[in-house]
Amino acid sequence: YRVNMFRCRDGSSKETPSPAPETPADVRRLFNEGWSIQWLQPQQEHDALAAFVAVLESEFGSLVGVNAYLTPPGTQGLAPHWDDVEVFVLQLGGRKSWKLHKSTSASPLPPEAQTLPRYSSGDLDASSLSPVMMHPNLLPGDFLYLPRGIIHHAP
């Protein structure tokens, strides 16, 4: 399978089910219990999505990765974190409220001398975050761009 499941109940740390789901029935049961589903590379199963990814790769001149997430209403899938890649979120159904924060790292270097993160952050404690700088609420069809290194979560 190219499916992962996780949830974040305390606002700061992601947990994964044990044992991991082995069947579609396991995935359905866990989803109904509040676990999020992460589908890796869904374009391998969907021709129209694969064609869209090919267009994006051609336009950007780089590889494009795709993950799809399904989170039960009223739950949080991932803890606050930043990614080491540019992230584009397309809300397909339901609604999701996001919180975006500036990096919490202090650097003695001037902004022009700083570098972008080379690795994702892992889970960040919510109490360590800078104040919310944006709080977008996504509806079906909405699109959100998350620059590399921006701390984000959708509680």
Describe the fold and architecture:
By secondary structure, the chain is of the alpha+beta class. Helices cover 15% and strands 22% of the residues. The strands form 4 sheets. Strands 1-2-3 form a 3-stranded antiparallel beta sheet, with helices on one face. A 3-stranded antiparallel beta sheet has the order 7-6-10, with no helix packed on it. The chain has a two-stranded antiparallel sheet with strand order 4-9.
Concise description?
The protein has 155 residues and is α+β, with helices and mostly antiparallel strands.
Shape: globular
Strand content: 15-25%
Return residue spans where pLDDT drops below 50 for at least 5 consecutive residues.
none
Order of helices and strands: EHEHEEEEEEEE
- Main sheet: which strands, in order across? 1-2-3
Sheet of most strands: 3 strands, antiparallel
Q: What is the strand tally?
A: 10
Radius of gyration: 17 Å
Q: Determine the mean pLDDT.
A: 90
Q: Structural class, from secondary structure content?
A: alpha+beta
The proportion of residues forming helix, as a percent range, comes to: 10-25%
Query: What's the end-to-end separation, in Å?
Result: 27 Å
Helix segment count? Answer: 2
